[in-house]
Design a protein that fits this description.
disordered N terminus; single chain; mainly alpha; 13 helices
Length: 365
């Protein structure tokens, strides 16, 4: 474990050096059972804000329950992030063997971030269109995704901007903790690698407690390419995901404005920030509530550890869990990933609900 942590920290610590505006038709957006039915629009803060934010999340859950085709959004988003982990692992191997210069490293990062973000934005546009264009019956995600293709150009440009912003935020994040004073060691848990490393290397996330059992080539004894994806690719993808979620929470209405009102990218960004000033508290509350749901499921790993007795095996004795506990760990990981992507789908639906609410609030006399 010590060797894995040393290698991971070495590579995490910056080793990778690393037109006419059309208005939306009044009857275009239809979200059955919105979170704000029966809730007062007044009151910018306090319990009303919290109620509206959490209400949007519950509204998204109800909408998803009635339109289970939308689960394709979560599945495809998961596949996109899995591809990102593969790409991160591949670039980790390339950087280790070829030692490209810093320009090459940044080009690699930009290409991977841009490709991943474009796919995620296209899926989000499909989710929004599938909901907004359906008045009766269930929403068709495939139809929404097909309709999202015509917005490829603004989404492409927005992906490039987010990729550049994301890489800069990641470098700032790494830089802050690179120069952290030794007097504040407890702050290192918030660093870009420490939390992920300390979590992914323990049971039940590393369900065998020995990377060699997953990565050793049978009959050869060498390492397979799986080691590049797990843990290293997964670790970098988790950092990407953290930055991406922050950027999406700060700019939640850019994609709805592009695909529903045919705004230009500049207009969409400006109006998204304007809407954020009026409904930003609800967005933060909704995002925080959904984050608590995922984090609550994540924390159940402590129960799995306690039940198995594998709390900190590296400081006691090295052993491999039995097949029963390995099976339970695999099932736990699958359940956690499923919950995370279902909640991500709910978040996308809730964002559209909050967007509709903000537009309705702005047009109210």
């Amino acid at each position: 474990m010590t060797r894995v942590s040393e290698i991971a920290e070495h590579w995490f610590g910056l080793c990778r050096r690393p037109p006419v505006v059309r208005t939306m038709q009044a009857d275009f957006v239809h979200l059955p059972g919105t979170a704000h039915e029966g809730l007062p629009d007044g009151g910018g803060g306090g319990s009303g804000t919290i109620r509206r934010g959490i209400g949007a999340a519950f509204s998204g859950m109800r909408t998803l329950n009635r339109n289970r085709q939308l689960l394709w959004f979560g599945l495809l988003a998961g596949l996109v992030l899995a591809g990102n982990a593969v790409g991160e692992g591949a670039f980790w191997y390339i950087n280790r063997t070829m030692q490209p210069d810093i320009i090459g490293l940044y080009i690699q990062d930009f290409f991977l971030w841009f490709a991943t973000l474009f796919c995620l934005l296209l899926l989000l546009a499909g989710l929004i269109l599938s909901l907004s264009s359906k008045k009766e019956g269930s929403a068709s995600f495939s139809e929404g995704l097909a309709g999202a293709k015509k917005y490829g150009k603004p989404l492409l440009l927005w992906s490039m901007i987010l990729a550049i912003a994301g890489i800069l935020l990641l470098r700032i994040w790494v830089g802050l903790f690179t120069g952290l004073l030794p007097e504040f060691p407890f702050l290192y848990i918030f660093g870009p690698s420490n939390f992920v490393i300390s979590t992914v290397t323990q049971f039940p996330f590393n369900w065998t407690l020995d990377w060699a059992m997953l990565t050793e080539v049978p009959g050869y004894g060498g390492r397979s390419l799986l080691l590049l994806i797990y843990p290293f690719g997964v670790m970098w993808t988790m950092n990407f995901l953290a930055i991406t979620l922050i950027m999406f929470v700060l700019t939640p209405f850019v994609v709805p404005l592009i695909v529903l009102e045919q705004k230009t990218l500049r207009e969409a960004v400006m109006e998204s920030f304007t809407l954020m000033r009026t409904i930003g508290a609800e967005i933060v509350t909704c995002a925080a509530f959904l984050g608590v749901v995922v984090f609550g499921v994540f924390l159940t790993y402590l129960l799995v550890q306690a039940a198995s007795g594998i709390v900190n095996p590296y400081e006691t004795v090295m052993f491999h869990p039995t097949l029963t506990w390995i099976t339970l760990a695999v099932l736990y990981n699958l359940a956690l990933v499923t919950v995370a992507f279902v909640v991500a789908t709910v978040g996308g639906i809730a964002a559209l609900d909050l967007y509709t609410s903000s537009k309705n609030r702005g047009s109210a006399p």
